[in-house]
Amino acid sequence: MSLTIRPLETGDKPAWVPLWRAYLDFYETTLPDAVYDVTFARLTSTDHPDQNGLIALEDGRAAGLVHFIYHPHNWRIEKVCYLQDLFAAPEARGRGVGRALIEAVYARADADDCPSVYWLTQDFNTRARQLYDRIGRLTPFIKYSR
After folding, report:
1. Are 111 and 139 spatial neighbours (Cβ–Cβ below 8 Å)?
2. By the 8 A CB rule, do 6 and 55 touch?
3. CB contact at 8 A, 92 and 35
């Protein structure tokens, strides 16, 4: 298996939509098509440098996604990075896709001089939390950070 993590590109929308829809289905959420369109446009636009998306490709096929946002923080001079959405396709789980996506966000944050990456999850997301407990630090706020 060959795993590639790279920034989302405008031509990735047909592969991104099913991943994004499956992610939202997991959280029992539906969004209007307009939100899909605007979100994808922001994730792939240079006009929105603080809103970013990466896609994981296994042997050229879409296997996962991550979205992350840089934002100011009142306790720091630098911006911090909120890893907002992370999803690995069910058939790709257990093969390092989630970890690779998180590590790619860490690398981007480091390259952008962003000292902190954090994310949230729901307490029932036990499978993902097994990974998060290995790669992040659990805070009293059920918030993971690096």
Report:
1. no
2. yes
3. no
How many CB atoms are closer than 10 A to CB 73? 16
**61-80 confidence digits (pLDDT tens):** 999 999 999 999 999 999 99
β-pairing, 143-145 vs 117-120, is: antiparallel
Percent helix, strand, coil in the chain, to 5, is 40, 30, 35
| Six-digit token string for 145 | 């950070």
Burial of 27 (0-12, 13-18, 19+ CB in 10 A): exposed
In the numeric block, which tokens belong to residue 82?
A: 């909120």
pTM metric for this prediction: 0.90
Where does the pLDDT of residue 8 fall: very low under 50, low under 70, confident under 90, or very high at 90 and above? very high
Distances (CA, A) of 81 to 15, 101, 106, 126, 140: 25, 14, 9, 23, 19
> How far is Cα 58 from Cα 99, in angstroms, rounded to an integer?
14
Average pLDDT, the chain: 93
Measuring CA to CA, which residue among 36, 41, 44 is closest to residue 18? 36
